[in-house]
Every structure is written in structure tokens, then in C-alpha cells.
Amino acid sequence: MGTKICSLICVLWFISFVLLAKAADDKGLGASFIFGDSLVDAGNNNYLPTLSKANIRPNGIDFKASGGNPTGRYTNGRTIGDIVGQELGQPNFAVPFLAPNSTGKAILYGVNYASGGGGILNATGRIFVNRLGMDVQIEYFNITRKQIDKLLGPSKAKDYISKKSIFSITVGANDFLNNYLLPVLSIGARISQSPDSFVDDMIKHLRGQLTRLYQLDARKFVVGNVGPIGCIPYQKTINQLKQDQCVELPNKLAVQYNGRLKDLLAELTDNLPGSTFLYANVYDLVMELITNYDKYGFSTASRACCGNGGQFAGIVPCGPTSSMCSDRSAHVFWDPYHPSEAANVLLAKKLLDGDTRYISPMNLRQLKDI
Ligand SMILES: *[C@@H]1O[C@H](CO)[C@@H](O)[C@H](O)[C@H]1NC(C)=O
Ligand SMILES: *[C@@H]1O[C@H](CO)[C@@H](O)[C@H](O)[C@H]1NC(C)=O
Ligand SMILES: *[C@@H]1O[C@H](CO)[C@@H](O)[C@H](O)[C@H]1NC(C)=O
């Protein structure tokens, strides 16, 4: 008798536990779909014949899920996309679209389309021979979209994409660094195109790209602006700057584009019914880390942890023959171009919970719950 009551109670307890767990799951983020460049690439370039690769040591040395082996991420640990997904309650990192395991139910947690060297414009990143630009990344999402229809049925799928999924877009830096500002390939373009007209082109293309995602049922967006690309160790090294100086032109271009991006996102939120576009102010966030690095526990914001050449180890990309710093979490920059995991953690926290100086008109945790 005693055991019978217990088993009944235990069954009831178990059922309520399962229901609670399911309710908790329902409150969590469904999927994150990640678009962009090397700042958020989680391994797509491993599957491309390209000169832009990060699946070489010591990249990934602090990435626990791979035991410190390189994964194709352009940093020592997690990217901002990884950290945001974890914080919003996702059990798995979004799988790279080109990886063999981006099939079946795994895609319900999200897919990562980002590619080192990729940009808004198709011509961006040509120097790397191969990379996925935004147009191609969105074509790939169109494939995923149909797979989700098959997995959930069209009506549930539409709900899942529009209500329980966040679309993050981190792109634009390469359009300057590996297109407009590139001495060899863009001399023609730079002579024939003013910064105004180039930024115009970027905004026009991005408007089309975000609208296409909306047509595929995306509703919750977060779009990062371009960071202070004149302050990365690469730019500081080749321009032989002092520790606390940044190169003016790249930063000026970024600021110009960022102003237009903010307007574009407000325009899209107004014009596309049911949509919310967040503006992630990566520029001011990274500038704050660079300016007040000691306040955040860093010992340097100018020298790359992994790299070689010049006063900031900023010329040769990170690889097996590079020198590597001993205190990786004390460097804002992991390599000549990309932030360290320690910097990514701080940046992600501000995007998740920060105020409108850094993420507007609301933060990511609020976006998840609308
Ligand atoms: C997919 O494969 C990648 C690398 O091959 C691995 O890091 C990741 O954990 C796998 N993800 C899932 C959800 O199976
Ligand atoms: C960019 O390339 C994609 C795929 O190759 C193509 O569909 C698209 O039309 C191109 N966009 C422009 C503006 O040329
Ligand atoms: C998605 O793909 C289909 C073809 O399978 C095409 O008709 C449609 O225009 C595409 N949608 C977008 C928004 O690119």
C-alpha cells in the first residue's frame, strides 16, 4: 500500500516535473540564426577552398567543447554568437550550415551561415578566393527554411521562425577592410566611388537582404554596426601608430556607415509589420573596452595575443608559428583582427542586458520575450 501511494505520487511528481520542464523550454529561445563574417563564423570556412581559415592551432585553445582544438572560430574560445545563444538557454551551439551535422533536428536550435571574409557586397573578400557573402548566406537560409517546414509542418514552422527565433547579422567590416580600403583590388572602385556612394551601396544591398529574411518569416533581428576597425592591431601595426592611437579613415568610414545603418533599421521596423530590428552598437562597446581596458581587467588593447610582426604582433595572422601571449584573458585582441573570448564575454553581456547606449530600442533578453 505504502509503495503504491508512493508510486502514484512519484508518477504525479514526475509528470508535473516534465510539464514544468516543458514550460521552461517553451520560454527559452528556439533557434538562433547567425549571419555575418569571421567575428561569428563557427566553422563554415573549414568546408571552403579559401585563404581565410581558422581551423589551425592555436585558434580555439580555450574552446571547452572541442577540448581546445581548433573549430574554425577566429578566436581562442567562444564567439559573441556562441555566448548569446548559451545565455538565452540554448543547449547546443548553432551548427555551421556547411558542416555535415547541420541536418535533422540539430537545425531546430539554429544554424550559423557566417563566413570569414564575407561582406554585404558580393565583391567583398575576393582576395580570399572564396567566402560566403550575405546574398549566398540568405540563399542557404532559404534551404534551411524548407527543412524546418518538413520537420515541424508549415504552420508550426512559421510560428517557430517568427516568434521563437532570433536572427543576428554581424557584417560590414570586410566591406571596408577587404574591399573599399584594399589597395590592390579596389583602386578602381575607390577612384570612381566616394565614401558616400560606397556606403549608399552597402545600405541598399543590406536593405534588400534583411527584407528577404523577413519574407522568409524572420521577425526578431539584431544587426551589429561596424566596430572601430581603425583600432585593430593590424591597422595600428601597418600604420606604425602609437599604443593609444587609431587609424582615422577606417574609423570614419565605420561611423558614417553606422549612422545610416541605425536609420535603416528604424525604417525597416516601421515598414515591415510585426518586425523588430535591434541596433547593436558594437563600435561604442569595443571603443569603451579599448579606451578603458585596464578597468575591465585587460593588460593591453593594442597588442594581439597571437600573431607576429611589428610593434603590436599585427601583421602575420595567428597560426602554429605565431608567438602567443601567456595571459590570453588579459588581451582585448586575440589576433590582429579579432577580439579574445574574454572581450567577447563582456561584449555579449552588454548586448544581452545592456541599456540603449549599446543595444536599442531594447536588449536581447527583452527581444527574446516579445
Ligand atoms: C557539429 O559538428 C561540429 C564540428 O564538426 C561540432 O563542433 C558540434 O558540436 C556538432 N554539433 C552538434 C549539435 O552535433
Ligand atoms: C551576388 O551573388 C549571388 C550569388 O552568386 C547572386 O544571386 C546575386 O544576384 C549577386 N548580387 C549582386 C548584386 O550581384
Ligand atoms: C526561396 O527559394 C525559392 C525557390 O526554392 C524561391 O522561389 C524564393 O524566391 C526564395 N525566397 C527568397 C526570399 O529568397
What are the main properties of this structure?
single chain, 370 residues, alpha/beta, Rossmann fold, five-stranded mixed beta sheet, two-stranded parallel ribbon, globular, binds 2-acetamido-2-deoxy-beta-D-glucopyranose, GDSL, Lipase, lipid metabolism
Note down, in words, how this protein is organized.
It is a single chain. With 370 residues, this protein is an alpha/beta fold. The chain has a domain of 258 residues: Rossmann fold. The protein is built from twelve helices and nine strands. The chain has a five-stranded mixed sheet with strand order 1-4-5-6-9. Strands 2-3 form a two-stranded parallel ribbon. A two-stranded antiparallel sheet has the order 7-8. Helix 2 crosses helix 11. The chain binds 2-acetamido-2-deoxy-beta-D-glucopyranose (3 copies).
